[in-house]
Design brief:
three-stranded antiparallel sheet; 8 helices; 8 strands; rod-shaped
Length: 259
Amino acid sequence: MTDIVYQSVGVFVALVVLYFLSCIRILFEYQRGVIFRLGRVLGAPKGPGLILVFWPIDRMVRVGLRTIVHAVSPQDVITRDNVSVKVNAVVYFRVIDAMKAVLEVENYHYATDQLSLTTLRSVLGQAELDELLSQRDQINRRLQNVIDEHSGPWGVKVALVEVKDVDLPDHMKRAMAKQAESERERRAKVIHADGEFQASTKLRDAAEVLKDHPIAVQMRYLQTLVEIGAEKNTTILFPLPIELFRAFINRSEKPQPST
């Protein structure tokens, strides 16, 4: 009889030990465990490290705290100036409150995905095409603020939203190329006109200086001849000042005495 009692006690102890061993759970550093006991959540998430889950009365839900990189599928968006574009984005978010991520929403990953889709369409629909192409940083911050405001009650923190690609229609690409080409031509004409204006201003100042110093005109004339002679030219244009022929012109204009 004693042996039977000892054997029963040994079996009971072995079962208790096996039960406690089966209740052991190990959570990594980036994981937290939300424990439900008889359907009611315990005070705070467990982990990381070694914890005990007393089944069948306890049920544990693992929640990861690492940053999740989610690629938002391409969306057809009509901008405020009625241009149809296809846009996709990348959302970086993480769980900061494991309790809310389990209790406040059924699937925080799916909920954040759908929230990103709707927010991307609504926010980009309020922006013009030029703003979408040139002010990408402001649009990214606006998307991040809107998504984070709605996902905050779920215990999810949106760290960053990046609009990755903006796919324009072919006719819009051609129109933008023509616009850029016209803008470059306009700038070239403005720069050329500004250069002509500056050159004419400098020539006017030089003429004012040379007008009062005739010898400077001769020095400039000789310097021009030196520059022409330095080149290996077969033909040289040799200008002569009109003053050299003024005496002959005046003599020919005088009336001849009648005989």
